[in-house]
Amino acid sequence: MAKLFDGKLVITEIPDLLEYLPTTIYLTLVALVVGLVIGLLIALVRMNRIPVLNQIAIAFVSIVRGTPIIVQLYITYFGIPIALKYFNYYHGTSFNINGIPGILFAMVALGLNQSAFDSETIRAAIQSVDKGQIEAAKSMGMNGGQVLRRVILPQAAAVALLPLGNSFISLIKGTSLAFTCSVVEITAAGKILAGRNYRYFEVYCSLAIIYWVITFILERILALVEKKITIPEQPPEDKNASPRKEESK
Amino acid sequence: MSLIEIRGLSKSFGKNVVLDNVDLDINEGEVVAIIGPSGTGKSTLLRSLNLLEKPEAGTVTIDGKTFDLTTKVSKEKLELRKQTEMVFQQFNLFKNRTALENVMEGLTVVKKEKKEEAKKQALFELERVGMGDRLGHYPRHLSGGQQQRVAIARALALKPKLLLMDEPTSALDPELVGEVLLTIKKIAKEGFTILLVTHEMDFVKSVANRIIFLENGKVVANGSPREIFDNPTSDRLKSFLRNINMLQSADDYSI
């Protein structure tokens, strides 16, 4: 019987696939930052109920959460060039439609998709910050930006860390759909590789290992960050405490 | 001229008038206590001075500088807030910062002081409230009384012209009230100008120079502790004092 499963191939293919890992990471990081920044903006718009923008934000979040990511990738990939064609036609410009690299579409689609989900996480986290502390900061004379940076965001970040970590992990795997925008990241590379020898099953196993290892490393990093930002259970031991323990009464 | 002059302060929530054209003068170094039944705008008066509430009308003159309390200009709001500091009922310490960092926060962020200077100042203030040995503790490691003392240090560090204290001991266990009252007494003696809302009548008697009795948004009585407690002139004040245990006999409780 022919060899149905070539276990050795699973391992030997990994280095070839890793050549495309930078694309996966690059795509992930850009989509992560886009998602967080736009997600924060959406959260702020929604919390301050800024007219018009608030309604747009609500509709955007609903549509993005209500459609599959692969459909969003296709819509971005085909929609932007069509929009650009119209733009060229009506404004007499001549932007090169084919000059846009595929990865840009994937970044836009994945980033916006992340932002919709992140905005809800960020909104919940910000709302969890104690109003009293915000009042205390205001009454000190902090301006809005200082209150946001010094009081709200650090505490909201601690609350949002775990759910955002979750969405970060699913983003990494979401990049495997970027081949729809003709981006060759590790999954696309695996398919191309398997096309040569028809060993699809082996390459998918290799990919599974790679994704899992990346995620595992990320989980460790998140655990470290969590440990760092968690306020310790026990008070510090006072090495240089002043000799008197309590104020004399 | 008084250090603080409040004129025509009015605030209502919907149809409920909480402060009705209140005028109030506070001299430098004075400790003024506001007493009155609940819901009469004692806290609202304090919070309006710090613009945590938005009054409908009113001005405050602090050290010769007049501020419009209805201003919408953020620069003016910040300027006014820097004149006063608030001590809250619930302490409102920054939970993710240590005692030392809590006190340094306003100095470095608002006053833009250098880290070393801010630290020096913060150490001095924490020492003053007897918390010099809890610098690295987070609020969750501290008792309510200790948290409130850190909050007082945080307010003092910014050298406010007027210290606003909104029921600073109301959220504390009875056994922890004493340490906070002692701290307030100490800073009152050091000459800070304080406007205080409290239910601790014995404390008011011993610390306040002047007592304001507020009811239905109006100043009903304004006088020294002796005038207020020993010779109350207003009927409303008399019945209030009776209700809060300054009553004479059990007969006054009619069921």
Please characterize this protein's 3D structure:
The complex is a heterodimer of chains A (249) and B (255). By secondary structure, chain A is mostly helical. Chain A folds into two domains: 67 residues; 137 residues, MetI-like fold (Orthogonal Bundle). Helices cover 73% and strands 0% of the residues of chain A. Chain A has ten helices and no strands. In chain A, α4 crosses α6, α6 packs across α8 and α7 packs across α8. The termini of chain A are far apart. Chain B is α/β, with parallel strands linked by helices and 255 residues long. Chain B is 39% helix and 24% strand. In chain B, strands 6-7-8-3-9-10 form a six-stranded mixed beta sheet, with helices on both faces. A four-stranded antiparallel beta sheet of chain B has the order 2-1-4-5, with helices on one face. In chain B, 47% of the residues are buried.
Largest sheet of chain A: none
What is the end-to-end distance of chain A?
91 Å
State the helical fraction of chain B: 25-40%
CATH architecture descriptor name of the largest domain in chain A = Orthogonal Bundle
- Count the domains of chain A: 2
Give the structural class of chain A: mainly alpha
Outline of this structure?
With 249 residues, chain A is mainly α.
Notable characteristics:
heterodimer, A: 249 residues, mainly alpha, MetI-like fold, 2 domains, 10 helices, flat, disordered C terminus, B: 255 residues, alpha/beta, Rossmann fold, six-stranded mixed β-sheet, four-stranded antiparallel β-sheet, 9 helices, globular
